[in-house]
Amino acid sequence: GDMVAMPVTVSASAKSALEKAIKQREEQGEGDQGDGKVKVGTQCKNNSCTKCYADEASLSQECLYHPGAPVFHEGYKYWSCCKKKKTTDFSEFLSFTGCTRGTCVFTDDPTKKKKALCRYDFFQQGPQVTLSIYAKKVHPEQCEFQISATRLKLFICFDFVNTFALDLELAGRVRPNECKVEILGPKVEIVLKKGDGSAWTELGNSLMTEDD
C-alpha cells in the first residue's frame, strides 16, 4: 500500500536538549578553529575503534575498524563488511574487532553524515506496538517517518552528523492513519496501531539491502 508520513510530536525536553547542543557546538566551533586541537579523551570516530586521543602521536596511531555499516537482519547483527561474523547479542556485536587497518580519526567532518548504531526495542500493549529507538539530540526537520499497512520506513538524523535508517516489513498489519511518532529526550518513540488483535513475536523483517 501507499506510504504516508506519520505525525511527529517533539517533546519540550528534546527541543531544549537540541537547542543546548547547537549552542554548545557554536561556542566550541569558535574555539576550535583557532588551533584545531582535539580534546584529550576524545574517542576515535571509526566504527569499533575504542582508542582515545592522548596527544599528537594519537593522530598517527594504528586503528582497527569496520568501514561498513551495521546491519540488523532477522534478529542477527553484523557489519556489512564482515558478513561471516553474526550474533544476536547486541553487546557481542559491539565488541567485534575491526577488519580494516587505518589511522584513528578524532574529528567529525560536519559535511559528512555517517551511519550510526542505535539500540532499539519494542513492546506491545493491547492494540499498540511501541518501538523505541535510542537516539539523543534528534533533528526533527531532517527525519522521515513513513508507514503503510505493512511497512515502516524511517530515517533519523541526530547529534549533527549521525544518521540511522530502518526499513521493515512489519510482522502484522497496522492502521497507518492511527500511527504516530514522538521525539523524546533520550529516544524516538513510534506508536503503531495494530490492524487486528494478533500478538507480534517480532517487529518485522528488514527490507534494507547491504548497500543502503
From TrEMBL:
Keywords (A to Z) from UniProt: Metal-binding, Repeat, Zinc
InterPro entries listed in its UniProt record: CHORD_dom, CHRD1, CS_dom, HSP20-like_chaperone
The organism of origin for this protein: Hemiselmis andersenii
Record lineage: Eukaryota, Cryptophyceae, Cryptomonadales, Hemiselmidaceae, Hemiselmis
Domain CS: 115-204
Segments crossing the lipid bilayer: none
Protein name: CS domain-containing protein
SUPFAM superfamilies for the chain: HSP20-like chaperones (SSF49764)
Molecular function (Gene Ontology), one example: metal ion binding
PANTHER family in UniProt: CHPADIPLOID STATE MAINTENANCE PROTEIN CHPA (PTHR46983:SF3), CYSTEINE AND HISTIDINE-RICH DOMAIN-CONTAINING PROTEIN 1 (PTHR46983)
Domain CHORD stretches: 44-104
Keyword Metal-binding annotated: yes
